[in-house]
TrEMBL record:
<dbReference type="GO" id="GO:0009088">
    <property type="term" value="P:threonine biosynthetic process"/>
</dbReference>
<dbReference type="Pfam" id="PF00742">
    <property type="entry name" value="Homoserine_dh"/>
</dbReference>
<comment type="similarity">
    <text>Belongs to the homoserine dehydrogenase family.</text>
</comment>
<dbReference type="InterPro" id="IPR045865">
    <property type="entry name" value="ACT-like_dom_sf"/>
</dbReference>
<feature type="active site" description="Proton donor">
    <location>
        <position position="206"/>
    </location>
</feature>
<keyword id="KW-0486">Methionine biosynthesis</keyword>
<dbReference type="InterPro" id="IPR019811">
    <property type="entry name" value="HDH_CS"/>
</dbReference>
<dbReference type="GO" id="GO:0009086">
    <property type="term" value="P:methionine biosynthetic process"/>
</dbReference>
<feature type="binding site">
    <location>
        <position position="191"/>
    </location>
    <ligand>
        <name>L-homoserine</name>
    </ligand>
</feature>
<dbReference type="InterPro" id="IPR005106">
    <property type="entry name" value="Asp/hSer_DH_NAD-bd"/>
</dbReference>
<feature type="binding site">
    <location>
        <begin position="12"/>
        <end position="19"/>
    </location>
    <ligand>
        <name>NADP(+)</name>
    </ligand>
</feature>
<feature type="domain" description="ACT">
    <location>
        <begin position="360"/>
        <end position="434"/>
    </location>
</feature>
<dbReference type="InterPro" id="IPR016204">
    <property type="entry name" value="HDH"/>
</dbReference>
<keyword id="KW-0028">Amino-acid biosynthesis</keyword>
<keyword id="KW-0791">Threonine biosynthesis</keyword>
<dbReference type="GO" id="GO:0004412">
    <property type="term" value="F:homoserine dehydrogenase activity"/>
</dbReference>
<dbReference type="Pfam" id="PF01842">
    <property type="entry name" value="ACT"/>
</dbReference>
């Protein structure tokens, strides 16, 4: 006989994502029937006095988060607090108490994934994280399951909604960076400390998680190269546009040969207008995955926001609930390897100097004959071949020269720039960006 179980959830956090999650779990009509067997038992928050946009059963709220993770009635802990502590300790405590965990917290997973998954594997519980990357876009489960038969070659993504929203509005409306950031905060897209978005750290957390799943090894976060969007100016956006590009904050994990070290990086990048990632605008995210034998597949959707992220959180809750239900009916006794994390070793990460990529660079120089020739000589000394070189205008009495290179070893390109900086005719190099 199949018994009907009620699976109890302890929800840690009732902010943007927590509220969206509770709304889905309280309103199950027309969704998967299994959701009707899932109940929110307790919700942990910082303040009981805060006005909430959601009707809650009496006494469900508490500020005692520890009491939730140790409650014997609770099967699944959903951590949507954000930040490193107390999130990390509460996740570990929940695992220690034999509870499954669903989290949207990429900051904790990318830094403490090793400790958390080792503990979860030892305790025989799942730690699920679909909401941690790409918000509502299903990308974690596809990487663990449907795509895992492929040899992955590259994961290239726009994985931060806030910065894509900012860059899109700077590009299409010429808006001011700080004004648009304030809007992204109001819309609930940004992290509590938005420098995590703007400086690329959130995207670095996410690409570390994606790379780990795609390439089958853990990633040491400090080895992920990370550059944010503060240096992207209206001048670069305008030049990129003239040259047929848009500027996107890309997160890339790439392995050129199966045995080579991985390149894992986040930086603003010129993307050709014809490339599929160039048309991903606003808070939308997209992740392009290339693998053998599949070829390319692109996941696209809302990368942040209450409803979108709740969709991912609740799908994880439902996956675990399905396992618990099967277990209670004695159908399944072992961990499902396509839900659990199975890596123990670390990936070897290649130094940035070894990266081969194209570059865009903008120079301010004295406006006199022969300067372009001198730049060309310095580039030639280091094997840097130019795809285009343009001098469009003057800034004051200085000439503005923009170059786009062919593929070049990053170390060689920087050596050529070091030599160019010594030229008497060169005033400054205001920007250097990579080109996809
Ligand atoms: N916002 C988004 O679009 C997305 C967010 N995420 C991730 O989801 C997580 C949550 O984000 P979000 O919902 O935006 O965050 P919010 O800041 O909106 O909400 C955080 C919630 O956690 C509670 N909280 C935080 N710290 C504590 C603490 N020390 N003790 C008790 N309660 C605490 C807050 O309580 P109180 O309400 O009382 O202040 C609040 O309810 C983060 O890890 C974020 O990176 C992932 C994908 C998208
Ligand atoms: N701050 C993040 C929220 C989702 O992960 C973003 O802007 O993408
Ligand atoms: Na996701």
């Amino acid at each position: 006989m199949v018994r009907k179980t009620v699976i109890k959830v302890g929800l840690l956090g009732l902010g943007t994502v927590g509220t969206g999650t509770a709304e889905v779990l309280f309103d199950t009509a027309g969704r998967h029937p299994l959701l009707q067997e899932i109940e929110i038992y307790r919700i942990g928050v910082r303040s009981l006095d805060k006005v909430r946009d959601i009707n809650l059963p009496q006494d469900v709220l508490t500020t005692d988060l520890e009491s939730i993770v140790v409650a014997p009635e609770i099967d699944i802990i959903v951590e949507v607090l954000g930040g490193l502590e107390p999130a990390r300790s509460l996740i570990l405590k929940a695992i220690d108490c034999g509870k499954h965990v669903v989290t949207a917290n990429k900051a904790v997973i990318s830094r403490y994934g090793d400790e958390i998954f080792t503990a979860a594997n030892a305790a025989g519980v799942y730690v699920m994280l679909e909401a941690a990357v790409g918000g509502g876009i299903p990308v974690i489960q596809p990487l663990k399951q449907a795509l895992s038969v492929n040899r992955i070659q590259a994961v290239t993504g726009i994985v931060n909604g806030t910065t894509n929203y900012i860059l899109t509005r700077m590009q299409t409306e010429g808006s001011d960076f700080n004004e648009v950031l304030a809007d992204a905060q109001k819309l609930g897209y940004a992290e509590a400390d938005p420098s995590a978005d703007v400086d690329g750290l959130d995207a670095a957390d996410k690409i570390a998680i994606l790379a780990s799943l795609a390439f089958g090894g853990r990633i040491k976060l400090p080895e992920v190269y990370c550059e944010g969007i503060r240096s992207v100016s209206q001048a670069d956006i305008a030049y990129a546009d003239k040259l047929g590009f848009v500027i996107k904050l890309l997160a890339i994990a790439q392995r050129r040969q199966p045995t080579a070290a991985l390149s894992v990086r986040v930086h603003p990048t010129l993307v050709a207008r014809s490339h599929p990632l160039a048309s991903i605008n606003g808070v939308y995210n997209a992740i392009l995955i290339a693998g053998e034998p599949l070829g390319q597949v692109m996941f696209y959707g809302p990368g942040a926001g209450a409803g979108a992220t709740a969709s991912a959180v609740v799908s994880d809750v439902m996956n675990v609930a399905a396992v618990l239900k099967a277990k209670s009916n004695q159908v399944q006794t072992q961990s499902n390897p396509l839900l659990a994390c199975s890596h123990q070793d670390y990936c070897a990460i290649a130094p940035m100097a070894e990266l081969t990529t194209r570059f865009y660079a903008r120079f301010l120089t004295k406006d006199r004959p022969g300067v372009i020739g001198k730049l060309g000589t310095c580039f030639g000394n280091y094997g840097v071949s130019l795809e285009s070189i343009v001098q469009i205008g003057l800034q004051g009495n200085l000439a503005e020269i923009v170059v786009v290179t062919h593929d070049v070893r990053e170390g060689n390109f920087h050596s050529s720039l070091a030599e160019i900086r010594t030229l008497e005719a060169v005033d400054s190099i205001p920007s250097v960006l990579r080109v996809l």
